[in-house]
Design goal:
It is built from 5 helices and 6 strands. The protein is α+β, with helices and mostly antiparallel strands and 149 residues long. It has 2 domains: 11-41, no CATH class; 48-147. Helix 1 (61-71) packs across helix 2 and helix 4 (119-129) runs antiparallel to helix 5 (135-147). The longest helix is centred in the middle third of the chain and has 18 residues, at 79-96.
Length: 149
């Protein structure tokens, strides 16, 4: 970190305090011994979702949570568990370094996690996500679920 007073390239960190999205650091220049403050933050690249119709929109964690809340309606799944799943998915997407992600990939990620969280919620989500055309395709999905046990 370059000293704002003398321009020297090296400083030592005296104090470091994390805030919500930033880290505040007090530094001391190794040349002139003057102190200054820096703020560091994690830069998140926006994730763009490619919808089934080809349109694009920004990733919205709230929409993801709402879809899972709807699937878990009247089930014994806590909001904390749902938020944790949404955070896991968001982190996985950020770590993948892909800036454009198909909605089908996110749907599969949700179903994978809902399957372990609550099977009824999984089937509810799958019925909307996969748009079952008739009872036979619905039964095929249930058969897969039962055979995985």
């Amino acid at each position: 970190m370059k000293c704002p007073f003398c321009g020297f390239d090296e400083s030592k960190v005296i104090d470091s305090r994390p805030n919500d999205e930033t880290i505040r650091r007090r530094r001391e220049c190794l040349s002139c011994s003057k102190r200054f403050t820096t703020y560091e933050f994690v830069e998140h690249m926006p994730i763009v979702i490619i919808k089934k119709d080809g349109s694009r929109q920004s990733f919205d964690k709230v929409k993801l949570i709402n879809s899972m809340v709807h699937a878990c309606d009247k089930r014994q799944v806590s909001l904390t568990d749902i938020e944790n799943v949404a955070s896991e998915i968001e982190t996985e997407l950020q770590n993948s370094l892909e800036r454009e992600v198909p909605s089908t990939q996110i749907g599969e990620m949700v179903m994978k996690r809902l399957k372990t969280l609550d099977e009824v919620a999984y089937v509810r989500f799958a019925s909307v996500y996969r748009q079952f055309k008739d009872i036979n395709t619905f039964m095929e999905e249930l058969s897969k679920l039962l055979s995985d046990k």
